[in-house]
Amino acid sequence: MRNYVDIASRVKNLNGPVELIGTVHDYPIYQIRLASSAAAPVPILLTGGVHGDEPAGVAATLQFLERDNTELLKRFTFVVIPCINPYGYVHGTRENREGVDINRAFDTMDVPEVAIVKKAIAQTQFSLAIDFHEDYDATGFYLYEGKRDEAYIGVELADAVKTIGPIDADDPGEEAPEIAAGVYKVATEWGTQGLAPYLLHFHSEHVIITETPTIWPLEQRVALHLGILDGTLAFC
Fold first, then answer.
1. How sure is the predictor about 121, in pLDDT bands with cuts at 50, 70 and 90?
2. CA distances (Å), 144 to each of 109, 147, 211, in order?
3. Residue pair 133/228 in contact by the 8 Å Cβ criterion
4. What is the pTM of this model?
5. d(CA 172, CA 219)
6. What is the number of alpha carbons within 13 Å of residue 137 lying toward its C-beta?
7. What angle separates helix 55-66 from helix 4-12, to the nearest 10 degrees?
8. Which of 45-49, 70-74, 175-179 is predicted least confidently?
């Protein structure tokens, strides 16, 4: 079992405003807003821990929050939800305590973690949303991209981070159209059940899902997630 107290302690030690947006089974879910004194016009959403057995996304959001983002805050504001599924994170399960895959439940308000996230972002439109994931079956990284204007940048992003680790050559089997090796579209067939397609439909012009292989060391997975994030921001 992982210790969620460590996550809560790191969040509370951040410089930015920390908001408790909900509690599920005694686990707090936090949202952190990063902004300069002169509010930047481009809001970005970062999320991790939708699947509790994918800790690299949680680690990536926390490392992002703890690093010096002074230059980025001149151009962007950030809304960060480090761990959407605390119970799953603590117990190492993909699903929440009720056995629900949160990333297949964003078309409902019946799942408490989903309802908390939806309420927290209800009034916000984002220019970009990145959801950090990992894949137990993969041997390399891959990503999904959805963009309303279809001006995709995934190929450039994948090329930029290949020095961190190789692209996974196998199709992830999500019925997502392939843009290039390791780069797939967020498919309309997914509806709005997943967090990223839900955001693309209602709250964001551009969404990216990063997938890193669990067989990589945690530090390498985190570096890949943050490399994709930084590469995407360079295009914004």
1. very high
2. 25, 10, 8
3. no
4. 0.96
5. 23
6. 5
7. 20
8. 175-179
Q: How far apart are CA 194 and CA 102, in angstroms?
A: 8
User: In angstroms, rounded to a whole number, what is the distance separating the alpha carbons of residues 48 and 57?
Assistant: 5
User: How far is residue 133's CA from residue 110's CA, in Å, rounded to a whole number?
Assistant: 23
* Beta pairing class for 142-147 and 178-180: unpaired
Which residues on neighbouring strands pair with residue 147, listed in sequence order?
Answer: 206
Distance separating alpha carbons of residues 52 and 48, to the nearest angstrom: 9
In angstroms, the CA 102 to CA 84 distance is: 9
CATH number, residue 227: 3.40.630.10
pLDDT at 175 over 80: no
What integer pLDDT is reported at residue 39 of this predicted model? 66
For the chain, state the CA radius of gyration. Answer: 16
Pairing verdict, β 42-47 and 128-135: parallel
CA distance 171 to 66: 34
Domain count, the chain: 1
Residue 129 belongs to what domain range?
4-235
Q: Which residues, 6+ apart, have CB-to-CB distance to 208 below 8 Å?
A: 128, 129, 130, 131, 143, 144, 145, 146, 154, 157, 196, 228, 232
